[in-house]
Design brief:
Layout: E1 6-13, H1 19-29, H2 47-52, E2 60-66, E3 72-78, H3 87-95, E4 99-105, H4 112-123, E5 127-133, H5 142-153, E6 161-162, H6 171-181, E7 194-203, E8 207-216, E9 219-220, E10 224-227, E11 233-235, E12 238-242, E13 246-248, E14 251-252, E15 257-261, E16 274-278, E17 296-302, H7 308-320, E18 326-332, E19 336-343, H8 346-358, E20 364-366, E21 370-371, E22 373-377, E23 382-385, E24 397-412, H9 416-425, E25 429-435, E26 440-448, H10 456-463, E27 469-480, E28 482-489, E29 492-493, E30 499-502, H11 503-520, E31 528-534, E32 537-544, H12 560-580, H13 587-595
Parallel strand pairs: 1-3, 1-4, 4-5, 5-6
Antiparallel strand pairs: 2-3, 7-8, 7-16, 8-15, 9-14, 10-11, 10-16, 12-13, 12-15, 17-19, 17-20, 17-21, 18-19, 22-23, 22-24, 24-26, 24-27, 25-26, 28-29, 28-30, 28-31, 31-32
Amino acid sequence: MDTQHIRNFSIIAHIDHGKTTLSDRLLHRTGTISTRDMEDQLLDSMDLEKERGITIKAHPVTMRYQARNGETYELNLIDTPGHVDFSYEVSRSLSACEGALLVVDAAQGVEAQTVANVHLAMKQNLEIIPVINKIDLPHADVAQARQQLEEILAIPGETAIPASAKEGIGIDEILEAIVARIPPPKPTGAPGLQALAFDSYFDTYKGVVTHVRVFNGEIRAGLQVKLLYSGKSHEVKEVGSFNPKPYVREKLEVGETGYITANIKSPQEVKMGDTVTDARNPAPALPGFKEIHPMVFSGIYPINTADYEHLKVAMSKLKLNDSAFVYSAETSVALGFGFRCGFLGLLHMEIVQERLRREYNMDIIATYPSVVYHVTLTDGTFKEVDNPTFLPEVTFIGKIEEPMVKAFIICPNENIGDLMSLISEKRGSLDHTETLDPKRVMLTTLIPLNEILIDFHDRIKSMTRGYGSMDYEQAGYMESDMVKLDMLVNGEPMDAFSSIVHRSKAEGRGRTLAEKLKEVIPRQQFQVKIQAAIGGKIIASAHVSAFRKDVTAKCYGGDVSRKRKLLEKQKEGKKRMKSIGNVNIPQEAFIEVLKA
């Protein structure tokens, strides 16, 4: 099809603002899906996506639409994940488009992720069409949503289209706006083929299926193509598009979106954002490519050590469909054999663990998550540390830098005080506040990534009774007074509980862990000492009292010195036992503490 009749767009929105419902409605209205095949959240194929109402994996779809002017257009919807963890994936998907539909919930207004995603779209110079969704709700406030678009995002309010994806209101207007407002794709003018690989998935029969958007030239079966960043060449076996199921086409031309298969065995070869070009006549790479690096690390171990091989297979299968997930084998004194896994962020970590439990029936336990620290040694050597075990001795460390994030928190006015104290408790600093409307404000803060790993989001939700929303973006590294906290049981360090924490938080965390371990370690014949230490300094301790045999039971009457003699003898025995005794901590104890 000629480029004048092609429109490439994506839909961006905050979680649960109706993005997937709107895409379902567009597919139905353009006749891409018949009424019989229609189901809710059609593009979300995983159970987990449907349950949580989030998009984890992006899906492109090609639709044919006959506009009111009688012309037929090819509309390529490139669906994107909504969550910040996948922001690079979102930015690659957006760079494959010329426009974006910005969906705002009429009842909730502009939220934190809306702001972040609009910034991403504006960076790519996309034409933004605002859609105010859910106007059929009884408490919908369209006028206020228009006002927020103008004040927060600087988008003219009158250009917004009121719609209800659920009821099918305003769908025709949206389709007409896509045709009228979004510019047709233009060739880049490069000497040969240029196509952007914006996603991929693994198919058992075809190998890696790569989603591409053609910017220049054309792709057809039999062509020898080269992936510029991985440097590999392959022969294209099949070319096609999705509606939403894949169908084969003769070729993909300038501006068109679809997929190619080329007998690629490993998803590692197709890097997201890579440029596909003609191997015989290569063109320059498209801009914006970045290597994806994990931000959060955690150890994953099977609860039953016999399941290690099964877990290994499950991880390798999971990696086929999620190239951002990395793992390597590691062993722990306490938990046995397992894996050190790297994730893009918190949601990504949660999803991977949930998928291992559900799709592969694995019983797993995860260690305390940590982030990547930049360590400069006294001799000037630079080191990246993601596991507390590998942190060098204090005497060799020059400085430690920790990753920071810029967090946008939108909350009702009455919760500002609570949130300010939460931010300062998490070692964050408030950059500035903006009033969004009479009821809500947006706080922009700089906060260490390490501090928001566990309960930050949950606490925002509970403080604001569910009305708060948060989004964050990476903001580089900053020098910090970080220390390694070790937990010692009877003088032996327990690697599963080691963590890198800020010096001001070390004592509190050490105390909490010591108390928790005291509850779960079984009593022995001798007293067991539990200590939290930074280097050689003990900062918190607790002890599990010993079982005591009543050795004086056989003494009744007589002189007190007989009893004393027996107790002294027992004391000596316990002392000797303590010096040679071993504390075997049951696996259940570790699991209990790590769950907490």
